[in-house]
Predict the structure.
Amino acid sequence: MKNRCLVCSVALVSTLTLGGCGTLPGTGSGSTTVTVWLMKDSVSDDFLRRFVSEYEKEHSSVELDIKIQEWTGIGEKVLSALDSDDAPDVIEVGNTQVAQYAESRELRDLTLESVRDLGGDDWLPGLAQPGSIRGAQFGIPWYAANRVVIYNKDLFAQAGIEEPPKTRARWLTDTAALNTGGKQGIYLAGQDWYTLAGFIWDEGGELAVESGGQFQGSVDSPAALKGMAFYKDLQSLGNGPKDSDEATPPQAEVFAKGDVAQIISTPSAARIIEEKNPALKGVLGFFPVPGKTGDKPGTVFTGGSDLIVPEKSSHRSAAVDVVKALAGEKWQTELARAMGYVPNKTTLAGVIEGDESTAAMAAGAARGRATPNSPQWANVESDNPIKPYMTAVLQGRSPQEAAKTASEAITTALRD
């Protein structure tokens, strides 16, 4: 998942080679070169330089060759690399992409390392579960990011709301109170299906379920319909469009106008909001998406990255050692502080205390989920039937009928 801008220094840019990726060679003189593919915008140049330098000092026989990849077209590029005789040793992949790559049977099984060396029991479920295929751990969680509620503290104060809501019921009540006097209680686009997924999961529903090795759409289940009903109630407390998603228009830009009390987004949207309207600096607050009860936040979709090791890696043992370092406590702490990510373990949440936005994100990540663990899930998202389903319900069509149509389309996409 890409959600961060990478600002390259002149020193880093000078090392980049033209073509499909950039390369940051290590500075060591080791006899083993471990090639690592990382995605553009995942880490800063400062973090990368410090990691390479310290790792090579601690592993004198290893040199790291870091190649920066573009997100566009990465799926086909990774599959080709996995099938080649010149595969990289470590690859960063989106957490929801692991199933697709594992289907190739070209990934190293890292179950033993996850249990013995990496404390897999404490991993965020939204990163760990997508990396586990048929009971084997192929993807090692690296970092996470998820949606929170970004709110305008001034508008909350004007409405007499002293603290953010912790339950769905209170959230609706507060949002209704904010939705007055020309102000929008919340700007929620009608096709924000990642947010809907969280509400469905909170009700015990699923986007799709697996039975007998086959997935089928399930947004028409009673539990899933309850999630959609809540989404409809919340969406009505603002002027979000019913027939487009959060990117059309960009919701951060709508919020920046100053008359919207809340949006649901990753904390990185705050930077865009403040750039568009500097008067909102110091006015933005953050809280986890509320849950059905006050003792735990709502379930949210967790995006982020896992690390995989190709079966055809020339240096599989050395590659696993690099993964252990990147996924271990030291560099997880460094990465979280440098990039504002959620660390891969719930036990590391304390390293980001004091940062309101990241702390809110971490609270939600502890109850994070990912999309169904099917290698064909990309087929669903390519022509996503959940979006028109949401619009149909918001525009008054029978939820049961619209959901049945969407579920059938999901089933077809997952079996192609």
